[in-house]
Specification:
The complex is a heterodimer. By secondary structure, chain A is an alpha+beta fold. Chain A has a domain of 120 residues: 2-Layer Sandwich (Alpha-Beta Plaits). Helix content of chain A is 52%, strand content 19%. Chain A contains 8 helices and 8 strands; from the N terminus they run H-H-H-H-H-E-H-E-E-E-E-E-E-H-H-E. Chain A has a 5-stranded antiparallel beta sheet with strand order 3-2-7-1-8. A 3-stranded antiparallel beta sheet of chain A has the order 4-5-6, covered by helices on one side. In chain A, a hairpin with a 2-residue loop joins strand 4 and strand 5. In chain A, helix 6 packs across helix 8. Chain A is elongated and about 130 Å long. The termini of chain A are far apart. Chain B has 3 domains: 29 residues; 59 residues; 113 residues, Protein of unknown function DUF881 (Alpha-Beta Plaits), CATH 3.30.70.1880. Chain B is built from 7 helices and 9 strands; from the N terminus they run ααααβαββββββααββ. The longest helix of chain B has 34 residues. The chains are: A alpha+beta, B alpha+beta. Chains A and B meet through helix 3, helix 4, helix 5, strand 1 and helix 6 of A and helix 2, helix 3, helix 4, strand 1 and helix 5 of B.
Chain lengths: 246, 242
């Protein structure tokens, strides 16, 4: 028995125990944890503070601020402009000039107008339908406005923003901007013109068929109502020229 | 764990994890937290997070130019208002201001010629692939870049009610005036801003020179662009001033 016991106990060389015993050296463990922590911290800093991300978010913040500043300035211009027009109207001696200013301003979109016409409501497709194509783009809106002019509209506003020759319809990020102000769906387009022919003429334009197509195929909301009741369209504020002279 | 154990032992070792397992678990937990946090902070960014850097710069440039324009406008308007309000201007001054206003309105209405700094853009279209929609986009780009007075092919003056379509023969027409290629756009405004607007990614130049149209665009900045074509100002029949 004693030989067997001895054999069993001595089967493993003493070195075997020392090399296979769990290495619980505290120093190594500490180094491993430190390295892992350092790695995580570096990764975290890289995510948060990377130059590119930093510059981008800085740009985005500045863009946001510039946008707010611009909006408050356009508001200011609009107020001043309205005030000046009132003051002028009461002070102009030359009634011929006054009448011309009054009429032209309304015609080119610089002053409030009223009249019958049509109202269009347009909306993105409900989410989930339209194969991801159910979103209205700036180009869709500018095409619609183009079609309305073609159909004989005399004055147009989108979500209460009057469209003049100085009014760009563009996009910034995911939002559509009219006159540099972001608007969001549903879009309401009001157009003054002959209510008895405007809707049918619009339907015959390229824009009309395009909108019918995206309505039928991508689920985009598109409804046209003739309005015999007078619509009220505001003026496009601050229609001034910086560079052009006659 | 030196040797395989029955399931009861497995359960016990699950409940009493070793130090190494604890550390790995903690690190996984932290990593997961970081990932979620990063994704959420990305998602919470405002509108512009999906714009590229170059687009952001362009957007900011446009905004700054527009802001500067508005600021000087506010200054001018404030002066005018104060003069009118105080009455120091007098009736003569009010009349002068009104006729200056009328001149400006006539330029905007397109009933008088205009000139000023700007750009001349020529679009070559050898394969007749340019569409009215492409020109409409170009027009919006020019408006966006501060274009004040715009004309197509020395023949069609752009005004508030301008539309671009096709005539009965299929030619591109602006307000019913048929145009033939090459299309020429003359625009009064800040020349550099206008050119940048046309060269913006996905804009006029990349559209025309892309594989769909295979045309060519040349843009020249001019110190004085003359726009002589006139629009017919039709009296509105339904829109009444208030």
């Amino acid at each position: 028995m004693s030989i067997l016991t001895e054999l069993a106990e001595g089967a493993l060389e003493p070195e075997y125990r020392t090399t296979t015993a769990p290495r619980r050296s505290p120093v190594r463990f500490a180094v491993a944890v430190t390295l892992a922590t350092a790695l995580i911290v570096v990764a975290m800093l890289a995510t948060l503070r990377s130059d590119v991300a930093d510059e981008r978010s800085d740009l985005a913040t500045r863009a946001k601020e510039a946008e707010e500043r611009r909006d408050s300035l356009s508001q200011e211009v609009a107020t001043l402009d309205a005030e000046i027009r009132l003051l002028q109207r009461s002070q102009i001696q030359d009634s011929g000039v006054a009448a011309d200013v009054f009429a032209l301003e309304a015609q080119i979109g610089g002053a409030e107008v009223t009249g019958p016409g049509l109202v269009i409501t347009a909306n993105d497709a409900p989410s989930g339908s339209g194969n991801g194509k159910g979103v209205i783009f700036d180009s869709d809106l500018s095409r619609l406005i183009n079609g309305l002019w073609e159909a004989g509209a005399e004055a147009i506003a989108i979500n209460g923003h009057r469209v003049s020759t100085l009014t760009p319809i563009r996009s910034a990020g995911s939002a559509i901007t009219v006159d540099y102000v972001s608007i969001s769906p549903p879009y309401q387009i009001e157009a003054i013109g002959d209510p008895s022919v405007l809707p049918s003429r619009l339907a015959r334009t390229q824009a009309g068929s395009w909108w019918q197509y995206i309505h039928d195929n991508y689920g985009i909301g598109f409804e046209v109502f003739a309005s015999t009741k007078d619509l009220q369209l505001p003026g496009d504020p601050g229609m001034t020229l910086r560079k052009a002279e006659s | 764990m030196p040797e395989p154990k029955p399931s009861a032992d497995l359960w016990r070792s699950f409940l009493k994890p070793g130090r190494g397992q604890l550390v790995v678990g903690a690190m996984l937990c932290i990593t997961a937290l970081l990932v979620v946090w990063t994704i959420r902070s990305q998602a919470a960014k405002p509108d512009y997070s999906n714009l590229r850097r170059s687009e952001l710069v362009q957007l900011l440039d446009n905004l700054t130019a527009e802001t500067r324009r508005l600021e000087s406008e506010v200054r001018e308007l404030t002066t005018t208002r104060d003069e009118l309000r105080s009455g120091v201007a007098g009736a003569k001054e009010a009349d002068d201001e009104a006729s200056r206003r009328l001149d400006r309105l006539k330029i905007l209405a397109g009933t008088v010629p205009a000139h000023g700094p700007g750009v001349r853009i020529v679009i070559q279209d050898p394969q007749s692939k340019v569409t009215p929609e492409l020109l409409l986009e170009a027009l919006e780009e020019m408006r966006d870049a501060g274009g004040e007075v715009i004309e197509f092919n020395d023949a069609a003056r752009v005004t508030t009610g301008t539309w671009i379509g096709r005539d009965a023969a299929g030619k591109i027409s602006v307000d019913g005036v048929a145009l033939s290629a090459p299309y020429r756009l003359e625009v009064i405004g800040d020349p550099a801003t206008l050119e940048t607007g046309a060269r913006f990614r996905g804009g006029l130049v990349s559209q025309v020179e892309g594989s769909n149209v295979q045309g060519q665009v040349t843009i020249s900045q001019e110190s004085d662009v003359r726009i002589d074509s006139l629009a017919q100002a039709e009296k509105p029949r339904f829109a009444r001033p208030k």
